[in-house]
Amino acid sequence: MASNKAMRITEQQFGDHISRYRNVLYLCHRNADPDAIGCSFALSRAFGGAIGAVDDLSRTGVSLANIIGARVLINPPVEDYDLVVVVDTSVGTQLGDRMPARYALVDHHLDEGLLECALFYIQKPAKSTAEIVWTILKENDKRVDRKAALGLLAGMIADTGRFKRATPYTFQAAAELLDAGGFAYEEALETLSVPVDLSQRIAVLKAASRAEVVRQGDWLVACTTVNSFEGSAAMALVDLGADVAFVAGRHGGRVRISARCSREAAQKGCNLAKLSGEVGKSHGGDGGGHRSAAALEAIGEPSAILNACRKKIVESLP
Ligand SMILES: [Mn+2]
Known about the structure:
The chain is an alpha/beta fold. It has 2 domains: 14-190, inorganic pyrophosphatase (n-terminal core) (Alpha-Beta Complex), CATH 3.90.1640.10; 198-316, Diaminopimelate Epimerase, Chain A, domain 1, CATH 3.10.310.40. It has helices at 14-18, 34-47, 59-68, 129-139, 146-159, 168-181, 185-190, 198-209, 230-240, 263-267, 272-282, 302-316; strands at 24-28, 50-53, 72-74, 83-87, 103-107, 121-123, 212-216, 219-225, 244-251, 254-261, 286-289, 293-298. The chain is elongated and about 70 Å long. The structure holds manganese (II) ion. Residues 35, 88, 108, 128-129, 159 line the site of manganese (II) ion.
């Protein structure tokens, strides 16, 4: 790879630099997420150019791209472009064998691997690349339309864990994007909600409506039966407030039980991996997993094996 003197530029200088190239590709990392997609889309709208991604998009990346109408080329021929702007990417391995010979970089990670060979770059420790891109647009007097604003805000929401890791600038940029885009915050949140299969939702709702809840001191243990998506159902019961959940399903001649517990229950000593192994073995099967997420397969009546799980967990809770 040709060695260049790496050139750090400011957000304001981006427009001047990018205008020297006629045919630009904004390239997202593998499994491109909403931050990468939203940023590439907003930059391509403002300065022109195509959007690409290496190999695939994440589930929420696909959702966002569909909603804002981003056309993302999968594994585009990078050598066909005058300049590739690598977006939201910190290490070359995220680009697989698509590493372009001539590239610029816009990113919020702290890794230095891609800096040295970049023609120019902007890299800052922001909480999302979208915050950097928003500054680029403002300082180059670019207006954003509704879709570009939606994409950038979705990127911020996703990368900050719905603002759990936000800085004052994240909130400021988010407010400005809501204003510029003219949409409700709820709409930006919705771009990230990937629909769950109908059959899965039915199974989880059935499991919840049939659940039997036992209270032991301050602990709530939920048990239920459903014949598919046991793991999702157990997770949903913990989300709803159970400390521990066991969901049984019949599969051919065998019974499968998925077990989940809250983080607090696991910290206080709940060990579902051990429990699943013991109950599984005592019913002609086996089980295991993690402390807070485990499963077993055994032979017998679902209700009897569920009872055995419930008895064991109640005995073990402090
Ligand atoms: Mn990011």
